[in-house]
Amino acid sequence: MAKYSETIDLYDDAGKLLKSGVSLEKISPLVNPATRKLIDLTKRTIAVNLGGIENGLKTGKIAKGHILGRELNLDIAGNKDAIVAKIKEMVQVEEGDDTIIHEFGGGKLLLVEVPSRRIEAASTYDAAVTAVASATTYALVDQFDISMFDASTVKAAIWGSYPHTMDMVGANVSSVLSNPQNNEGLGYALRNIPVNHVVMMTNRNAMQGAALSSTLEQAGMFEMGNAIGPFERAQLLAYAYQGLNANNMVYDLVKANGSTGTVGTVVQSMVERALEDKVIVPGKKGGYFQFYDTKDPMLWNAYAAAGTMAATMVNCGAGRFAQAVSSTLLYFNDLLEHETGLPGCDYGRVMGTAVGFSFFSHSIYGGGGPGIFNGNHVVTRHAAGVAIPCVVAAAALDAGTQMFSPESTSKIYADTYGKIDVFNKPIQQIANGV
C-alpha cells in the first residue's frame, strides 16, 4: 500500500513524459533503486589520474609542490594494463566481486568501483579512497621495482600531501566526496560536493545537474534527520517538483518565460499555475492587496522551489552568468512573498541563504564564484536542499564569467563520473527506478 495518496508525473529535461501516476514515496532515496545505486557509487567510486601521476613524477611536481632532484621517469602509460590488473587484485575482496575498473582517455584515467564489502566493513566512506590510493602506490612500486628511497616520492604523487594536511591536497586519486573531517555536522557528506563537480558530472546540462544535485541534497536531508515523520513529505515534494521536474513544472515555467521573461514574470506564471492547480486560493483583501491562502503549505513550498529553479534558469540563462544566482534566489522569493502573502521557498530560508551567499561569492568579500560552493558550506547550508540545485543550474548555464570555471576545477569528474549513466542522466535513471 502506498505511503502517500498523492501521485506525480515525471518528465525529462526535454519536457517528455517518462512516468505517470508515480506514488510520492517511489522517488525517496530510501526506496528508489536508481537513487540508492547513485549514492552507493558516490561512496565507493574513486577516480585515478594515471597520466597526472606520470607527469608529476617526471617533473617532480607532486603534492602541490616542486621537488627538484626527486624526478622519476616511469613509463606508466606503457605499463597501464599490468598496473590496472595489480590495482584490481589488491582492491577486490575476492575474485568475481563487484570491483570494477573503468578506463578513460586511453587508460590515463581510471574510475575504480571498490567492492561493497569494503564500505560495509568500514565506519566511513573514506575506506574507498584509501584502498585505491594504497593499491595504486604499491602497484607502481612493485611494477617498477622502486627502491625504499624513492617509494615516498611515488606515494606523494598519488596521495598528495596527506598526512601533512588533513585532506589529500594535490592527490591524483579523488573521491567526489570530501574527507569526513570537512563535514560540518551530522549527515552533511552528500551535501559536501562542490557545485562545479556536479556541473561537470552532468556535462553542463542544467536540468540534469539540478536533478543530480537535488538527489544528493535531499539524500542528505534524510541522512541528517530532516525527513522524519510529516517532514518526509515536505522534502519529497520539494525534491520532486524542483529536482525531478514533476508534472513538467520547471520545464513549463522556463519555456513560458525563456524568450522574453524575467524573474518577475516567472513569479506571475508560478502563481497562476498554483491557482489553476488549486494549491492556493484567494484569501482576504487588505486595501488593494490580495492575500492568498493554502491548505497545503508543503505543496506550496514545492511549487515555490520549482519556481525558484525556473527563475534561476531564465535569469542566469539569459545572461549566461552564474553570478546572478544569489540575487535570483533572493528576489524571486521576495517578489513571491509580496505577491501572495505566503512564505517563499523553504519558508524564508532560501532568502536568508541568498543574502549571505551574494556577499561571500562575489560581493565586497569576493571569496570565489558560486561554482566552488556546496551544501555543506557555512554560507549555503541553511536551505533544506533547495538552494544548491539552483546554483548548479546557474553554473551549468554560465559562459565563462566565474573566476573558477567548472573546467578548471572539476574536469576529471566530467571525464570519469560523467561517463556513467546514473550520474550524467539521473532524471531518466530515477524515473526508470520507480
From TrEMBL:
UniProt EC number: 2.8.4.1
GO biological process: one example: methanogenesis
Pathway: One-carbon metabolism; methyl-coenzyme M reduction; methane from methyl-coenzyme M: step 1/1
UniProt domain Methyl-coenzyme M reductase beta subunit N-terminal: residue ranges: 7-185
SUPFAM superfamilies the UniProt entry points to: Methyl-coenzyme M reductase alpha and beta chain C-terminal domain, Methyl-coenzyme M reductase subunits
Domain Methyl-coenzyme M reductase beta subunit C-terminal: 187-433
Catalytic activity: coenzyme B + methyl-coenzyme M = methane + coenzyme M-coenzyme B heterodisulfide
Gene Ontology molecular function: any one: coenzyme-B sulfoethylthiotransferase activity
Region forming the signal peptide: none
This protein's record includes keyword Ion transport: no
Ranges in coiled-coil conformation: none
Pfam families associated with the record: MCR_beta, MCR_beta_N
EC class name: transferase
Subunit text: MCR is a hexamer of two alpha, two beta, and two gamma chains, forming a dimer of heterotrimers. Hexamer of two alpha, two beta, and two gamma chains.
Protein name: Methyl-coenzyme M reductase subunit beta
Organism from which the protein derives: Methanoculleus taiwanensis
